[in-house]
Amino acid sequence: MGFLRKILPPKEWQPVVAVLMGAIVALGLYTAKVANVTSYLSDDPRTCINCHVMTTEYITWQHSSHRGVATCNDCHVPHDNVFKKYAFKAKDGLYHATIYTLRAEPQAIIMHEAGQEAVQNNCIRCHKEQVTDAKSVSWVDSHLSDRLDRTCWECHRETPHGRVKSLTAVGYHVEPLPIKEQQELFVPEWLEKATESKKPTP
Amino acid sequence: MSQKKNWLLFAATVVVVLLLSLLLNNIINRKAESQFAYQPQVNIDEHESRNEVWGENFPRQYQSFMRTRDTSFVSYLNGSAMRDALEEDPNLIVLWAGYGFSKDYNQPRGHAYAVTDIYNTLRTGGPTGPGTGPMPSTCWTCKSPDVPRLMNEIGIQEFYTGKWADIGAEITNPIGCADCHNPKTMSLQISRPALKEAFEAMGKDINDATHQEMRTLVCAQCHVEYYFNKKAPGGGSQYLTFPWKNGTRVEDMEAYYDSMNFSDWTHAISKTPMLKAQHPGYELFMTGVHAARGVSCADCHMPYKAEGGQKFTDHQIRSPLANVANSCQVCHRQEKDDLIEDVYQRQRRIKSTQNELEQLLVRAHVEAGKAWELGATEEQMKPILQDIRHAQWRWDYSVASHGGSFHSPVEVSRIVSTATRIAQEARIKLARLLSKLGHKGEVPFPDISTKEKAQKYVGLDMQKLEKEKEVFKENIIPKWLEEAKKRESQRDVEKVSMK
């Protein structure tokens, strides 16, 4: 308790300090809310377009066959254990946030080494059975390293984002929102109304 | 407590609050910035029929759509070029004697020509003003995104009432964006009542469709068999209807038409109450193997394409054979030439059986004409005409869906065989009747080896028709275009600007 007594202000000053601390905390909370920070704990791909610089990556992914099976985090953060996952997310996220805040983002975003390693491991995580052969492992010593050491995108260069990924590579798109979230029916309202009167009565 | 320490604490707080405020300001700024990055140029309103306005927001899709103007691709049966089908096969003129198609019938060009080509075809004749000309306003239904706009303005029933020339000034934009897309979400949507109503007639709700099914159904708004119902409730209209109530097979629709005694026209030579199959592309496609595997129209006719970093749907809707790499070869790992040969082989074989069937039908019409000439009674002719009606309907069904012999070769072959049997029936009955009427030997067959000869034989005055068309194109179309331009110039486009 000695420590607490040391930092606590004298009784008569405590209300003033409380008000000032409250102001700072409120400012912090508001900043967190504006920055939508809780979304960063989730796996929702739309978190990645909180900032618009990732729109190109988001749209190219949304036009790829991976959109139905893998989200951003499925490929871009490690999945071997949950602590590593969040540690990586935090490290990567803070790095992105810093560069973005400093307005230092490059025109074309390219993965760094740590990111490449994570992605490569995740390719293997899902596709291992497709690229390795259990029988061959027993008689070809180098089978696993032959098959798994080279990065997948050395050949599959368009998977899944395509090859050109500058900030201006994609145009205006409404895709950021999944279709069914925006629209329930395939018949527009005017046509529904105009044909309603003629519906056969059962 | 030292004074110095307090000052330090003060300075630290200043720094923390300052940095926090700076960060907050930065976040808010960049959020505002993202409101403008990747934003549209214009707001597209609900009934925007001008394709170029949509093109402001979606330049890639729009530019590829504009390439449907390309007329350089020719395949074995179709392609995107202007091909005179009557010139290539004058038999058609006799088969359609007394009907508009014997005047003029070209293989279709791309969507961008939808309005131009309906201006030019002799089938729409040479109206001299509102209320004139051979065709009803319903003929516009599949030509333009102006159609849903106008239907919303004046009413569906009203749209289907009157002559083709009555609303010429309202419809100028060729088939485009608003025909298939929701302007807010760009999701696919149905813009024509006929498909929705046909689904209801079959007891289905089109809103239950999946996205993949919609990639076919938006095409099925037009590429289907249809007729103009003159007895629709309300009266006075020629209500566009798909005859799907009993089902979408050729026999189902035949029974539907028979049950209501419907005929498109009466044949000029045989006096048969005929049915004209339009283009049952959707119905036949659905019976084929690609449909069974869940492939949609857009998968092959609008394959994906990459430009810059963006992958998008190629809106140059065309024959997949013009772009085998992006269409067929996405699934089929064969050589391009082998794949094309596979298609042509099916088409060639079916075409040969269709040609034989055509010969039977042309002769049946001529022989029926002879029987009437020799004084046959309606009673005697009735079963024969019924056979001719059914046989030609089925023949037409098999040829009019342009891609049918590839989309569903087995079903098309089946249809051709049943039609051949019925046509033979008709000719056997005719032979019996002719001999009863005292006719000996073969009925003389006219020379219909060229388009000109065949059109003369069925009694068409082509010079008159062409003259009328010329006058129409010179006097009426410029007026329509001018009126449309004026109307559209009064319609504002709301710009989305950074201000």
UniProtKB/TrEMBL annotation, chain B:
SUPFAM superfamilies: Multiheme cytochromes. Ca(2+) binds at E225, Y226, K276, Q278. Its main location: other. It catalyses: 6 Fe(III)-[cytochrome c] + NH4(+) + 2 H2O = 6 Fe(II)-[cytochrome c] + nitrite + 8 H(+). Substrate binds at Y226, H279. Keywords: Calcium, Electron transport, Heme, Iron, Metal-binding, Oxidoreductase, Periplasm, Signal, Transport. Pathway: Nitrogen metabolism; nitrate reduction (assimilation). The keyword Chloroplast does not apply. The keyword Nucleotidyltransferase does not apply. Heme c 1 binds at C139, C142, K143. InterPro entries: Cyt_c552, Cyt_c_NO2Rdtase_formate-dep, Multihaem_cyt_sf. It is found in: Cell envelope; Periplasm. Heme c 5 binds at H290, C328, C331, H332. Its cofactor is heme c; Ca(2+). Heme c 3 binds at H111, C219, C222, H223. Its EC number is 1.7.2.2. Catalyzes the reduction of nitrite to ammonia, consuming six electrons in the process. HAMAP family: Cytochrom_C552. NCBIfam families: PRK11125.1 (NF008339). Belongs to the cytochrome c-552 family. This is Cytochrome c-552.
